[in-house]
Amino acid sequence: MGHIVSSQGVATEPSKIQAVTQWPQPSNVKQLRGFLGLTGYYRRFIKHYGLISRPLTQMLKKGVQFQWTPLAQEAFLLLKKALTEAPVLAIPDFSQPFVIETDASELGMGAVLMQNGHPISFLSKSFSSRSRAFSTYEKECLAIIMAIEKWRSYLHGHEFLIRTDHKSLLHLENQKVVSKIQQKALLKLMDLRYKIQYKKGITNAAVDALSRVMEEPPILAISLSTPTWLNRLQQGYEDDDEAKQLLAELSLHEENSRGFSLHNGIIKKKDRIWMGNNTVAQQHIL
Questions:
Q1: Which of 89-103, 153-167, 211-225, 269-283 is the least confident region?
Q2: What are 57-86's pLDDT values in tens digits?
Q3: What's the chain's Rg over C-alpha atoms?
Q4: pLDDT the model gives residue 1
Q5: Contact (Cβ atoms closer than 8 angstroms) between residue 119 and residue 90
Q6: Separation CA 233–CA 132 (nearest Å)
Q7: Which of 54, 134, 163, 279 could form a disulfide with 101 if both were Cys (CB 3.0 to 4.6 A apart)?
Q8: Closest CA to 222 of 107, 134, 142, 109
């Protein structure tokens, strides 16, 4: 079935990996879909598969013209490299406790299921334009929800550990419910036995700084007021080909060669908000 099971664990099948490494550059959507179908079969072996493959999966969307860009080529090569370096995954041992590590950034979320420090499975997903507007706290909650939904069969009936780099989640059960995402996370965890542990430095210094701010007892959540025109600007990205191309580039790089960067789901150039061809948002500002 495409896997090799041994006393060491579960590994990818060499013949399938060889087929991936020899796969020619796709010249149409059908060939690209075939490549993503094969690599997607092994996505549990690849950390942050959803983010790495984002520039390629964006090309499969209806109405998007197939155009092989340097960004697509980089993602294509990164997926090949990630599969050739795929780790041997541990076989679950239900006599040992499971550990879930979750992580969320501006562009997506990821999780890993482990035992004794050895990965059993990886999971990742890129955020939609709507989800990118969520607060850091809500994104971290989404990562937990995704992991629980995927691996519930491993976790039910056993106490397990959730490790996160967002310190406020340590008090998830005692916090006032202020959002639907927080409510959903609590519902998913309701019938499970778990502990939440803070792990510093999973992502970057910016996340650590946010965690330190939230150590203050009165601060249990952060809410932000977003102007209407900013929401309309983000919604307009879906209808702007140039914006979609920039989002694909910035999913792999914090800043591209032209000085564009992504901040909380908003495209900026030299720290100034880039309007692009979004006439609705432009008129709203005027």
A1: 211-225
A2: 889 888 888 889 888 899 899 888 888 887
A3: 20
A4: 55
A5: yes
A6: 13
A7: 163
A8: 134
- CATH code assigned to 99-213: 3.30.420.10
DSSP-based three-state secondary structure for 176: coil
pLDDT at 201: 56
* The pair of three-digit structure tokens given for residue 250, joined into one six-digit string: 């910035």
Position 225 confidence tier, pLDDT thresholds 50, 70, 90? low
Q: Token pair for residue 16?
A: 């399938």
Q: Considering Cα of 199, then 204, then 208, then 211, what sign does the dihedral take?
A: negative
Contact in structure between 208 and 165 (CB atoms under 8 Å): yes
Identify the pLDDT of residue 123. Answer: 87
- Burial, 31: exposed, middle or buried (Cβ in 10 Å; 0-12, 13-18, 19+)? middle
Structural domain spans, the chain: 3-84, 99-213, 228-285
Q: Which residue has the tokens 């992580």?
A: 103
Whole-number Å distance between alpha carbons of 86 and 45: 6
Sheet holding 194-198, edge to edge: 118-126, 108-115, 99-104, 160-164, 194-198
Which one, of 84, 138, 91, 95, lies nearest residue 113 by Cα? 91
The CATH code that applies to domain 3-84 is 3.30.70.270
What are the distances in angstroms from CA 176 to CA 148, 151, 221? 21, 27, 9
Structural contact between residues 3 and 17, judged by C-beta atoms closer than 8 angstroms: no
Closest CA to 180 of 214, 216, 218, 141: 141
Instruction: Say if residues 247 and 267 touch (Cβ distance below 8 Å).
Output: yes
